């Protein structure tokens, strides 16, 4: 068992989500940065989809009541065990009574803490993920929460530390495919000119973008758009002209035109981009 001693802005349980429920109006949710979740699980010998803790910015403290094996990935929040600094993206061992603490990351937005055996909370529709939009899944973590640990897998960790590329502190370059509603704009290619920046109005549902440099996005078609399905990475443009890149907890339908869709491989990068950080879109396809 692990006990939550402290929580920063937000900490939730996440796995790789609950796909297959779109026809019931339920989105997949799951880790915002899927690659970081997968890596944390691989480091401790778990299957990649085991549930872990997603930590916004940092500020989390976990107290071990039994021997546990952990790994911290994603945003490189300075991490200590009983005050002793430990490595990022490395295998950590906590003995009973020891405490893991995450300070606040200076780059990136979300860190992931995986424990060997996974966080064994009850599943909802096949997933242990918290969906912040629908309210499905376990509640966000609070001080005093006790997190059960699942049985250890048969696989064993094969490395002590994983080399990972540093998250960018400046411009984040994101690839996107134009459409499907690019014809609703006077010049949809303006999305790829200049730079945007992530606004403070960003969460697990989506990252809102404000113009930093470049032409605005202007609508050519002003009529209402019938509600249609929304995919992960869709860049929807509301009447304000400030696009929103949909992330893990995005709605399954929407009524504003989607000017482009972020490549699946680059969605994790948007999920790690901090408010105020510049973003540049590159057209592919």
Concise overview:
With 285 residues, the protein is mainly β. It is 6% helix and 32% strand. It is built from 2 helices and 20 strands.
Layout of strands and helices, then pairs:
Elements: E1 2-6, E2 10-14, H1 34-43, E3 52-56, E4 61-64, E5 68-74, E6 79-81, E7 84-86, E8 92-94, E9 99-102, E10 110-115, E11 146-147, E12 172-178, E13 195-202, E14 206-213, E15 228-229, E16 234-236, E17 244-246, E18 253-254, E19 258-262, H2 264-271, E20 278-284
Parallel strand pairs: 12-20
Antiparallel strand pairs: 1-4, 1-11, 2-3, 3-10, 4-9, 5-8, 5-10, 6-7, 6-9, 12-19, 13-14, 13-20, 14-17, 15-18, 16-17, 16-19
Oligomer: single chain
Output the structural class.
mainly beta
Task: Count the beta strands.
Answer: 20
The helix-strand sequence is: EEHEEEEEEEEEEEEEEEEEHE
Report low-confidence residues grouped into runs of 5 or more.
none
The CATH topology of the largest domain turns out to be Jelly Rolls
* Rg calc: 20 Å
Q: How would you write the strand order of the largest sheet?
A: 12-19-16-17-14-13-20
Key attributes of the depicted protein:
Cyclophilin; mainly beta; single chain; 2 helices
Explain this structure.
With 285 residues, this protein is mainly beta. The chain folds into 2 domains: 2-147, Jelly Rolls; 172-283, Beta Barrel (Cyclophilin), CATH 2.40.100. The chain has 2 helices and 20 strands. A 7-stranded mixed β-barrel has the order 12-19-16-17-14-13-20. A 6-stranded antiparallel β-sheet has the order 7-6-9-4-1-11, with no helix packed on it. The protein has a 5-stranded antiparallel β-sheet with strand order 2-3-10-5-8, with helices on one face. A hairpin with a 2-residue loop joins strand 6 and strand 7. The longest helix has 10 residues, at 34-43. It is elongated and about 65 Å long. The model has no long low-confidence stretch (mean pLDDT 96). One of its GO terms (molecular function) is hydrolase activity. Pfam families: CT_A_B (PF02626). Residues 23-285 form the Carboxyltransferase domain. Keywords: ATP-binding, Hydrolase, Nucleotide-binding, Transferase.
């Amino acid at each position: 068992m692990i006990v939550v001693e402290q929580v920063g802005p937000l900490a939730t349980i996440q796995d790789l989500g609950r796909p297959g429920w779109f026809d019931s109006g339920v989105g997949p949710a799951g880790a915002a940065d899927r690659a970081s979740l997968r890596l944390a699980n691989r480091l401790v010998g778990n299957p990649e989809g085991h549930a872990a803790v997603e930590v916004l910015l940092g500020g989390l403290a976990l107290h071990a009541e039994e021997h546990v094996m952990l790994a911290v990935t994603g945003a490189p929040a300075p991490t200590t065990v009983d005050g002793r600094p430990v490595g990022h993206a490395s295998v950590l061992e906590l003995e009973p009574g020891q405490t893991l603490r995450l300070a606040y990351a200076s780059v990136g937005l979300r860190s992931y803490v995986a424990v060997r055996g996974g966080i064994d909370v009850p599943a909802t529709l096949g997933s242990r993920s918290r969906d912040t939009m629908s309210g499905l899944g376990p509640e966000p973590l609070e001080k005093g929460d006790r997190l059960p640990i699942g049985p250890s897998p048969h696989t064993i960790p094969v490395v002590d530390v994983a080399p990972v590329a540093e998250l960018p502190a400046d411009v984040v370059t994101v690839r996107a495919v134009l459409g499907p509603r690019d014809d609703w704009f006077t010049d949809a290619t303006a999305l790829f000119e200049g730079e945007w920046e992530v606004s403070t109005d960003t969460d697990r549902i989506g990252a809102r973008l404000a113009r930093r440099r470049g032409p605005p996005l202007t609508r050519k078609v002003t009529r209402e758009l019938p509600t249609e399905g929304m995919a992960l990475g869709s860049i929807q443009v509301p009447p304000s002209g400030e696009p929103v890149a949909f992330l893990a907890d995005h709605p399954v339908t929407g009524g504003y035109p989607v000017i482009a869709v972020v490549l699946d491989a680059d969605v994790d990068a948007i999920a790690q981009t901090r408010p105020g950080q510049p973003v540049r879109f590159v057209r592919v396809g």
